[in-house]
Amino acid sequence: MKARERKTKIVMFFLCALLLTGFLSAIPVCMGGDHEESWKHYAKRGDRRGDGILGTVSGRGHDKGNETTGQIVAWSLAAANLTVALSLIIAGVKQFAPIGPEVRSSLSRFNAAQKKYLMRFHYILNPLILILAILHWTLSRCRSTALPEWGLLTMSAVVALGIVLKFKLCPKAFVRNVYKVHTQPVLFLLLISMLLIGHLSMD
To answer: How far apart are CA 39 and CA 60, in angstroms?
Structure first.
């Protein structure tokens, strides 16, 4: 049983690292692009890349993303959650990598220091980013897929749980469960997957 749990943790760690890398590198492009112009560009060239897997759910010119708000939301989201990403990576390295006690201790000190200086931005920026994300959604148009809306709802839930934890808005008996849900890697993977796939599915 312990061996199976260890394998599951290893898989979850690498999935988190993979999707996190894709999130930090790809979501600014995905959220900020003018999808309608990209489809017109492919149509003029006679390029059929839009007829692939993503093209089967595309709106054929019916989608349009607001580039300015998309770029702001994407980069701000990456910056505000950098401390969380670093904590996840360090925790994974400490648990799975064959490192000595000195390196492990150095990683712990670095993690404590980066949390001390960066976590305040995580608390402050994420609620503001959610407001910007809602603005981005109202200024955009997506008839191809509902994944961006589901991603926005999931993001709203995660931010709301964070606010509950920060300001202790729930009874002490529920704090531990709320924390588990807020820091759940599966929820994090689901959120990023919906945002990435949803925006890539738009034409």
So the answer is: 7
**Residue-range definition of the domain harbouring residue 91:** 2-38+64-201
| pLDDT per position as a tens digit, 183-197 | 887 888 888 889 888
Contact between residue 58 and residue 40 where contact means Cβ atoms under 8 Å apart: no
* Residue 93: partners with Cβ closer than 8 Å, 6 or more residues away: 99, 107
What is the residue type of 138? T
Q: Flag whether 56 is in a domain.
A: no
29 domain residue, yes or no = yes
pTM: 0.70
Query: Is the CB of residue 107 less than 8 Å from the CB of residue 93?
Result: yes
The string over 108-133, giving b where at least 16 C-beta atoms fall within 10 Å of a residue's C-beta and e elsewhere, is: eeebeeeeeebeeebeebbeebbebb
DSSP type of residue 171: -
**Residue 155 forms part of a structural domain:** yes
Q: Which stretches of the chain drop beneath a pLDDT of 50?
A: 1, 11, 23-60
Q: Cα separation of 167 and 54, whole Å?
A: 41
